[in-house]
Amino acid sequence: xxxxxxxxxxxxxxxxxxxxxxxxxxxxxxxxxxxxxxxxxxxxxxxxxxxxxxxxxxxxxxxxxxxxxxxxxxxxxxxxxxxxxxxxxxxxxxxxxxxxxxxxxxxxxxxxxxxxxxxxxxxxxxxxxxxxxxxxxxxxxxxxxxxxxxxxxxxxxxxxxxxxxxxxxxxxxxxxxxxxxxxxxxxxxxxxxxxxxxxxxxxxxxxxxxxxxxxxxxxxxxxxxxxxxxxxxxxxxxxxxxxxxxxxxxxxxxxxxxxxxxxxxxxxxxxxxxxxxxxxxxxxxxxxxxxxxxxxxxxxxxxxxxxxxxxxxxxxxxxxxxxxxxxxxxxxxxxxxxxxxxxxxxxxxxxxxxxxxxxxxxxxxxxxxxxxxxxxxxxxxxxxxxxxxxxxxxxxxxxxxxxxxxxxxxxxxxxxxxxxxxxxxxxxxxxxxxxxxxxxxxxxxxxxxxxxxxxxxxxxxxxxxxxxxxxxxxxxxxxxxxxxxxx
Length: 487
What we know:
Aldehyde Dehydrogenase, Chain A, domain 1; seven-stranded mixed sheet; six-stranded mixed sheet
């Protein structure tokens, strides 16, 4: 059997295996509300089989013992295969989670390959082995694979985030059990087929979609050495507590409530245009989006006029239409959550400048209008809690210190941006923001830089050479002074 034509099995131990249970997960089109696929839901026994396969592959198999160059060659083949399937990947992710197709072609389909290639470029220079000598001793410091990794990924950028975990884990020599989100398991089936075609040894990657209870069984499995999770902060806290009990290695990339700070010399029209993507990408379903915009009080009306024009120009519609910029939310539950926040914003006294309802003509799908609030006080729920939908709050400030205080007035610290006519001033202000990434005038940091969060936005970093750190254990070997190492 090959994927993704048939979703009736799991990919375990290098084979497509029959589920041991009978439960299923229904994949629903966010655009129509109708079922588009059914996949098996893993039972605890299926997870046990997947972990056992990964454990065998790590403890007894060749993957951790072959050279880095050999692992790179196989993942290079995966990169080539991803490049041949970009259209299929884009259409698949759009169908299962509603990402507008134009964005899917870049972020959801091309992005995973670019990210994988970045890790392949960085891997040879990572310090897998290093000699250190001092007056107190001589050591060989090794970075060895941490072991079996449980990779738990969300639904908003499912393949991209899967690769963000798989690439460094596999290059380090780890084996993996990949657990896709129940809403978006289809791209994981496609990925499993590509890994099989690339020639990865059996058991190195295993794919088992599962619901929450069975996912906890994976996270707490005694044969799993490390958990890599991306998702909500609430779920991250639960996973952290479970891993903490067992002293299990864990990295968490969690939620955000990121601020875009517009300084008094900023090009407001340019900033508004940048925030078209910076605040509303993937219909607002990206944790790093700038969902708070902090503007000078004297220029607030000017910004709101420019921003309202940008938001009003974003077509809402069928995610398969290349013109669409705002598609449906992933599920009815997510739409209900977002609408609850819009109601809370109104109830607490914020003013709706744009949007605030459901667009006409889309009764079947899970749509919410892109929405902008003004007159937002820092303590309002819409200014403090992650909404994960196309809703942005605008807050006014009187001086630069207040702008920094507003930007930092959050339990989150994932992302942020500064807009200014003086980039040097922007860098200086960025250094005062308590957040893992800050973009000056919308400049991306790229995949060679680490990403991750301060505070409740997570633990650890992904991407860049630092992305390997989460998948290795450090070992120091004391060496005689006169020993000559040959490799």
